[in-house]
Recover the amino acids of this structure.
């Protein structure tokens, strides 16, 4: 299992679009993936769960990725966060 | 002509049932089929919206698709059915309902707005699980259907496929409501303000919708149908004849050139406006990009605007900044329950309060303007402070883009003249802008204090009221003193008698639905500027709209009839029955 900590760097935080982009990656992965924010842990393959965390800009989130493609998923998520979800950075 | 397809915005009621084991597989299937069907439906709307708006991806529909296939939702509903033996509709109601409640409590306005997306998904799923007969997406008839309802929403019109709908009939709304404007640009006949039509017809009734006369015939007999086909033939013939006008100059017999532009609602329309003989776009209403559950991004907007600007180059394109509010509600931006929405928090007022939305749009516009043919139009300006604040926003956006190393071309800035206050200070406005565009629909509504969507007072909506004509004349005078042009982009610029008055009052440009450009050109080519100017100055002195219409009809009805365009652009008598 990999634990990957990432910082939300777009201005608007994880609203519907970024949540969709995350689920685009996690939904296709074979691994089990959870997202942890401020002590709440949720299924990262569920857009409803990810959106409901209402993660604001500047927060740190942690992904727990467990499965055969965990390395690949971690690096995909990392570049998505580094690109500020293709939005304006904060 | 087509068979009636009733459109209702019905309320959904859900009953809780606990079922015997044997029925659970059926309920499971009902739910899974509903998901499947809804996914198909939303995918189609997504594709359609992408081709209509010219935007590369409609992420919002992608979000809807993800919500529909969300594992937490799926498992939650299936558990409710399998373990608690509940009916499928109740299971969806409880599981998705709980999510909606939670979203509404989140302490972030942007996320609370997402509850609207969930409700949309909820409604679609519920409708898919109901035995409510056919849905519009499945309708396929040769002649198309007539959509009949108390109120038809712009979003419904956006989802219509070409050839699917033969006509629209609704109880509410007037000629100038937004649905009417959209229907015209989609070239679907519409009759509105029918008061209780929706209750009189049932699904499958045959109905003739005659958009040019404003008549609706329910279950027509053989004679009615014959007459309808005859009228349709005349209409088609005149339409073909008008195409011969395409290459000719819009110039009066004594050599006064009137610029004719087209109004468009959808970026894809820009491809065909020059075919109709328009030499530019006089009004692109950007709010149609916003008719979805979250605002389009800067990149999405830039792509849509650039598409129009590049398609039209070298012709000028006037793009109006977001004019939300009034009868154009934009979810997540405008409030729903204003007691007086036309005079409420709308248009430029919203933009100046929500600089995030405004600046995103301004930057998209500045970046799209690579060929320098953009004319940026600010709506609902009622004072100098508003104009200066808006111009300051534009300057700020330009500076921010330039600091990032982007090249930003020059842009012409104009204001809509649609609030009487703007006319009273029009001298001052003229000194600080590059052009005026008179929005006659709102100017008439505000000058005469007549709500243009209220079907009880459509008779009082009089564009030829001397008060309105005088407003237009003052605007033209002030503009010409400063050497800037005046355009008229409301519905008036397509009405034959109004065209004569507007040209006579000195208006430089007329912008109208693409279909009306050729008939307007035909009118302009048949008149003398000096003559219509004298007529305009005469009617300015008259007491009321009735006298103005009587005078103009007496003088020009025959001319207009001789041109053979009356039935194409509606009744010659423009005093709106």
């Amino acid at each position: 299992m990999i634990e990957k900590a990432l910082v939300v760097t777009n201005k608007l935080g994880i609203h519907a679009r970024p949540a969709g982009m995350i689920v685009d990656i996690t939904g296709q992965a074979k691994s089990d993936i959870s997202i942890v924010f401020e002590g709440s842990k949720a299924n990262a393959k569920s857009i409803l769960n990810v959106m409901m965390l209402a993660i604001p800009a500047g927060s740190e989130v942690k992904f727990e990725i467990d499965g055969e493609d965990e390395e690949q998923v971690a690096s995909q998520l990392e570049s998505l966060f580094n690109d500020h979800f293709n939005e304006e950075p904060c | 002509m087509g068979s009636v397809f009733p459109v209702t915005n019905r309320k959904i009621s859900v009953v809780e049932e606990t079922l015997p084991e044997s029925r659970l597989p059926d309920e499971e299937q009902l739910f899974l089929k509903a998901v499947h069907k809804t996914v198909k439906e939303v995918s189609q709307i997504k594709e359609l919206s992408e081709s209509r708006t010219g935007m590369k991806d409609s992420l919002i529909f992608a979000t809807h698709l993800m919500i529909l296939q969300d594992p937490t939702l799926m498992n939650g509903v299936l558990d409710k059915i399998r373990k608690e033996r509940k009916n499928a509709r109740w299971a969806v109601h409880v599981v998705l309902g709980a999510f909606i409640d939670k979203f509404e409590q989140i302490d972030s306005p942007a996320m609370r707005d997402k509850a609207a997306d969930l409700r949309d998904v909820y409604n679609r799923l519920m409708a898919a699980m109901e035995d409510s007969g056919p849905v519009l997406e499945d309708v396929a008839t040769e002649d198309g259907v007539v959509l009949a309802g108390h109120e038809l929403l712009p979003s419904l019109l956006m989802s219509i496929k070409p050839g699917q709908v033969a006509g629209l009939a609704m109880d509410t709304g007037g000629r100038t409501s937004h649905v009417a404007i959209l229907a015209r640009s989609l070239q679907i006949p519409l009759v509105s303000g029918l008061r209780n039509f929706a209750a009189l017809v049932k699904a499958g009734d045959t109905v003739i919708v005659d958009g040019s006369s404003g008549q609706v015939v329910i279950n027509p007999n053989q004679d009615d149908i014959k007459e309808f086909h005859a009228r349709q033939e005349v209409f088609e013939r005149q339409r073909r004849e008008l195409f011969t006008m395409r290459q000719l100059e819009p110039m009066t017999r004594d050599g006064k050139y009137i610029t004719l532009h087209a109004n468009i609602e959808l970026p894809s329309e820009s491809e065909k406006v020059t075919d109709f003989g328009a030499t530019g776009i006089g009004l692109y209403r950007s709010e149609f990009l916003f008719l979805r559950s979250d605002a389009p991004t800067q990149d999405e907007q830039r792509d849509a605007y650039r598409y129009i600007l590049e398609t039209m180059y070298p012709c000028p394109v006037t793009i109006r900044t977001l004019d939300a509010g009034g009868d154009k509600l934009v979810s997540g931006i405008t409030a729903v329950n204003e007691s007086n929405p036309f005079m409420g928090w709308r248009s430029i007022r919203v933009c100046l309060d929500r600089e995030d939305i405004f600046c995103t749009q301004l930057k998209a516009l500045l970046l799209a303007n690579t060929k320098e043919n953009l004319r940026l139009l600010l709506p609902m300006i009622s004072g100098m402070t508003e104009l200066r604040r808006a111009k300051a926003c534009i300057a700020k956006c330009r500076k921010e883009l330039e600091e990032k190393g982007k090249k930003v071309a020059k842009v012409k800035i104009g204001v809509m003249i649609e609030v009487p206050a703007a006319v009273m200070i029009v001298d001052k406005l003229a000194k600080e802008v590059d052009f005026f565009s008179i929005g006659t629909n709102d100017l008439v509504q505000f000058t005469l204090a007549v709500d243009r969507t209220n079907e009880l007072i459509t008779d009082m909506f009089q564009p030829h009221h001397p008060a309105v004509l005088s407003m237009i004349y003052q605007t033209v005078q002030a503009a010409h003193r400063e050497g800037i042009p005046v355009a008229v982009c409301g519905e008036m610029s397509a009405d034959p008698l109004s065209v004569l008055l507007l040209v006579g009052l000195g208006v430089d440009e007329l912008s109208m639905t693409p279909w009306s450009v050729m008939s307007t050109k035909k009118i302009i080519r048949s008149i003398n500027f000096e003559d219509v100017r004298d007529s305009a100055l005469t009617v300015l002195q008259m007491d009321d709209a009735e006298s103005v219409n009587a005078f103009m009809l007496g003088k020009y009805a025959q001319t207009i009839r001789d041109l053979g365009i009356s039935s194409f652009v509606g009744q010659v008598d423009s005093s709106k029955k």
